[in-house]
Amino acid sequence: MKRYQLPLTVALIFVMACVGKAEEGKMRLFEMRTYYAAEGKLEALHSRFRDHTVGLFERHGMTNIGYWTPVDNPQRQLVYLLAYPDRKARTAAWKAFFADPQWKAAFQASEVDGKLVERVESLFLEATDYSPQIQSSALSPRIFELRTYTTTKGNLPALHQRFRDHTVALFAKHGMTNVGYWSPQPDQPGAENTLIYILAHRDQEAAAASFSAFRQDPQWIKARTESEAAVGGSLTAPDGVQSTFMQATDYSDIR
After folding, report:
1. Which of 79, 101, 127 is the last residue of a domain?
2. Fewer Cβ within 10 Å of end Cβ, the chain: N or C?
3. CA-wise closest residue to 79 among 183, 161, 196, 231
4. CA–CA separation, 74 and 120 (whole Å)
5. What's the mean per-residue pLDDT of the chain?
6. Average pLDDT, integer, range 79-105
7. Cα gap 204→176, rounded to integer Å
């Protein structure tokens, strides 16, 4: 039998790419931050991020992943995702950011007429082993969907397995773009029962059509039935699936 071999350089590139992706998933710390803007201050907050904050984050070693606002946004939220090598690097980066004279000047100038942010929420995340490698993209206008699953007790591993073996591929089959999948780090709220992920769709109508086709797919029905039979019930808690449609800001790397 004749054997075919990849050229050595091609093989090495392939191996290094695979290792790089695996190491990225193991080593990177993600932080999802949610800002609640003061009344009438959301646009000013966007301006501060657009003109100053995003660039200063990069200067101090933070990786900007994406910035979004909910389509329905009565709480005036800005949701964004950063990445760092680890917690130590995160602490050092924020310390340097807050000490930066350019940030201090921008902050003071933007808050002459009052503070821009009423409240900040932060959650440290790690990518699941089935999360795609996140890449910057500025595609034609599309909508993003932030989905948070809360599992029944002890069933987060089973949910990960179902996503790993079935759900992620079926989402793609039915026209959804898998942006990323994360779990809270062990010391974070929801670490034992939470999966957070982001999908992208052409628009909300396309999202509804995709999910309708997904739920009727015989492969999905079989996978769901078998996974629930294995644990004796639903993998998600009552009201344990939350969905928020979001639009990317004009300064987001992912759009």
Report:
1. 127
2. N
3. 196
4. 16
5. 90
6. 98
7. 11
Give the count of beta carbons closer than 10 Å to the beta carbon of residue 180. 20
Q: Rounded to the nearest 5°, which phi and psi values hold at 36?
A: -110, 105
Which residue is associated with the tokens 């179902």? 162
CA 29 – CA 27 distance, rounded (Å): 7
Q: Do residue 84 and residue 133 come from a single domain?
A: no
Last residue of a domain, one of 127, 150, 165: 127
What's 102's domain CATH number?
A: 3.30.70.100
232 and 169, same structural domain? Answer: yes
Is 20 domain-assigned?
no
DSSP codes joined into one string, 43-107 = HHHHHHIIIIIHHHHHHTTPEEEEEEEESS-TT-EEEEEEEESSHHHHHHHHHHHHH-HHHHHHH
Residue 210, domain extent: 128-255
pTM score of the predicted model:
0.88
Indicate if 117 and 161 belong to the same structural domain: no
* Element of type H or E holding 122: strand 117-127
Residue 5 has pLDDT above 50, yes or no: no
Same domain flag for 106 and 140:
no
Task: Work out the average pLDDT over 148-160.
Answer: 98
pLDDT tens per residue, range 53-90: 999 999 999 999 999 999 999 999 999 999 999 999 99
Q: Tell me how many domains the chain contains.
A: 2
pLDDT in tens, 184-226: 999 999 999 999 999 999 999 999 999 999 999 999 999 999 9
Q: Are 128 and 188 in contact (CB under 8 A)?
A: no
Spatial distance between the Cα atoms of 244 and 231, rounded to a whole number of angstroms? 28
